[in-house]
Amino acid sequence: MSGGNIFQIQRWSIHDGDGIRSVVFFKGCPLRCRWCANPESWNSRPQVVFFSEQCSGCGRCARVCDAGAIAVNAGSPAVFTREKCRDCGQCCAVCPTGARKKIGSRVTVEEVMKIINRDAIFYRESGGGVTFSGGEPFAQAHFLRELAMACKRVGIDTAVETCGYFNWRQVKDIFAFLDCVFMDIKHMDDCIHQELTGVSNRAILTNIAAVSRIHPNVIVRVPLIKEINAGEQNIENMCRYLRENTLVKGIEILPYHDFGRKKFNAVGIVIDHTFTTPDDVTVENVKQLISTFGIPILEFK
């Protein structure tokens, strides 16, 4: 069987669809969202990440690094020259504090299914299943297709979390093997969307409409950020588009969190922004506004 690149399989998740689920995180993403919770997923290849705050300065990593990418001064955290790193992972194997980790691996469909099947009884009893996330699963369309088909053959419920940025014609057939589709809307203004994510939102909005016409269980997710997309005009524009152009089942609001901030530093991405988690009043106001358009608010617990 063929394979693909992933960076984690999280078991016992209860926040990525109904019931108890295993979440398969695909590596590689076409977007560069400034608030991303998983920036280690951007690069499609396995890579070494470095959490400098955990480094003891012991020097073991520098002694095994053949690329000369690590320099250590006694008692200080190591200096990591990422451009020299070959991502071999030798430094990770000797790091005593977990400051260095190799993220990502090449796996086969068979290997992933072995892990998924361990919890099959819990999927059935809880109404759960498997969720494909990332990164962006549709960036590895062939691998996603084979995994979804393998799950269907053994009766496991499947869901996907996607940014919606894909070639519709190349992936249309995959939706027949998915029971639930979560699709993000980051912002309705195309210029702002490009500034925040690096890509246009036009294909994303078109794909949400297209998928909702052939799939009965399409849910729009909104990563809500107070100073970015929680404004009344943006929410109204989104709701109007969804009501007039789609058949989505509803909207799920996901308030922003800063869990990914340390990861940006670890993968060597400089961030010069600060985002704010919306307060309860802001979230409630957004939900009430959405409700005026007759679009259901959905929650998964």
Automatic annotation (TrEMBL):
Entry keyword set: 4Fe-4S, Iron, Iron-sulfur, Lyase, Metal-binding, Oxidoreductase, Pyruvate, S-adenosyl-L-methionine
InterPro entries xrefs: 4Fe4S_Fe-S-bd, Aldolase_TIM, BssD/PflA/YjjW, Organic_radical-activating, Organic_radical_activase, Radical_activat_CS, rSAM, rSAM_sf
Domain 4Fe-4S ferredoxin-type: start-end pairs: 46-75, 76-105
Cofactor(s) essential for the protein: [4Fe-4S] cluster
GO molecular function: 4 iron, 4 sulfur cluster binding; lyase activity; metal ion binding; oxidoreductase activity
Gene3D superfamilies recorded: 3.30.70.20, Aldolase class I, pyruvate-formate lyase- activating enzyme
UniProt key word 4Fe-4S: yes
Endpoints of the signal sequence: none
One Pfam entry name: Fer4_12
Record bears the keyword Iron-sulfur: yes
Domain Radical SAM core: 15-296
Substrates-to-products reaction catalysed: glycyl-[protein] + reduced [flavodoxin] + S-adenosyl-L-methionine = glycin-2-yl radical-[protein] + semiquinone [flavodoxin] + 5'-deoxyadenosine + L-methionine + H(+)
PANTHER family xref list: PYRUVATE FORMATE-LYASE 2-ACTIVATING ENZYME (PTHR30352:SF4), PYRUVATE FORMATE-LYASE-ACTIVATING ENZYME (PTHR30352)
Homology family: Belongs to the organic radical-activating enzymes family.
Name of the molecule in the record: Pyruvate formate lyase activating enzyme
